Amino acid sequence: MLQLFRKERMWEKRPLKDRYDVVIIGAGVHGLSTAYYLGKLGVTNVAVLDKGYIGGGGSARTTAIIRANYLTSQGVLFFRESLKLYEGLAKELDFNIMFSQLGRLDLGHTDSSIFGLRQRAEINQLLGVDSRMVGPKEIKELVPAIDLREGKTLPIIGALHHPPGGVVRHDAVVWGYGRGAARQGAEIHPFTEVTAITQENGRVTGVETPDGRIEADTVLSATAGWSSTIAKMLDLELPIVTHPLQAFVTEPLKPFMRTSISSANLHVYVYQTDRGEVVVGGGVDPYPTYSQRSTLQTLESLAGHALEMFPFLGRAKVLRQWAGLCDMTPDYAPVMGRVDGLDGFLITAGWGTWGFKAAPVAGRSIAELIATGKTPDLIEPFGLDRFRKGKLVNERAAAPAAAIH
Q1: CB-hemisphere CA count at 13 Å for 223?
Q2: CA distances from 317 to 231, 278, 302, 303, 311 (A)
Q3: What's the sign of the alpha-carbon dihedral 217, 223, 227, 233?
């Protein structure tokens, strides 16, 4: 007889204890991946707390594009490692995360955009990332349905092709990491809001929840767009501004593209899912807010930009639209690691539009920092103190979705 339901629970519901070695605020992909890798390093007395349901924040509002074709050496090396981890993650977690390496095209429409893409291609190749420049003929071969815009404004004159890039099923990654963390002893507590962070003599000592106080040796904030709110509990001001990011998806259509496409000049990115739906997104909204309501104005704008590349989509029906929160730093690069003057408190934030693709390597690196007390070389450049020292990591050029506004 066919078995339709799992006998094993993804994770067990347990009572909150009074003390843990590590408390992680945020049960999204970053918090759960950190808990998972902590378990692999032998740190199992861990609680992951979330004010909502598991993976219900930024992890549920992502288009889950995975790539490593960044610009700076710090960014390329970091995301190269994350891409490698994604390639083996289904086997690692014994869970199908539905990772499809359909490739990536970053389009160039002007001489200046082509110059920037060539820079990225050369840096990628020097650092072992598969990226190369292609011309209109090859672009058309990769995506026959695309309008190259010959004779129009902003014709497509080249692109950066990144074959190993792809997309992943966001909730599958969350569930896989959650189950993996729970199997190693971590406790996952949804609907458990952190209302305060306790500290004594410059050291963080735990958190307050509606169910009582929890003591901890280490507290990690992994709350994406809400990072500034958590930081204010410690009178800490982060160089982060939160913006909404909107996207939409169409009804299922007959397959017409097998790669993801992004255009900074046309202010849009597009890909087609295995089910035939067309996912369309663009830049963050131009104003900071914590609202996650989608707007007709953005829907019209994104649809119009998508039609500049695929005019035939004008007859497609929009299935749904959503918005998430992006925590943006001045240099469009994340913040990871310790906070000066607050022993026992760590942060992983400032992910902007690329947090999901970073989750495996970010979680592993933060777990290593907690377990060993030493900051891994891979995340050393992304410390919060870089803003005080003037050592910014400028990734704006490789983050067109974030930079368009």
Answers
A1: 25
A2: 42, 10, 14, 11, 14
A3: negative
- Domain ranges for the chain: 19-63+170-239+331-393, 101-165+241-328
Q: Is 96 exposed, middle or buried (0-12, 13-18, 19+ CB in 10 A)?
A: exposed
CA–CA dist 92, 95 (Å, integer): 8
List, run by run, the mean pLDDT of 10-residue segments along the chain (405 residues). 59 91 97 98 97 92 93 94 97 96 96 95 97 97 96 96 96 96 96 96 95 96 94 95 95 96 94 96 90 93 96 96 93 94 95 92 98 96 94 74 44
pLDDT value of position 6: 57
Residue 325: CB atoms within 10 A of its CB come to 23
Joined tokens for residue 351: 């992910």
**Locus of tokens 């490739």:** 103
Contacts of 393 (CB under 8 A, 6+ apart): 72, 74, 75, 331, 333, 381, 382, 386
Q: In this predicted model, what pLDDT tens digit does every residue of 64-76 receive, in sequence order?
A: 999 999 999 999 9
| Residue 341, both tokens | 């003057």
Indicate the CATH number for domain 101-165+241-328: 3.30.9.10
pTM for the full model?
0.93
Tokens for 85, please give them: 């981890």
Which is the CATH superfamily of the domain at 19-63+170-239+331-393?
A: FAD/NAD(P)-binding domain (3.50.50.60)
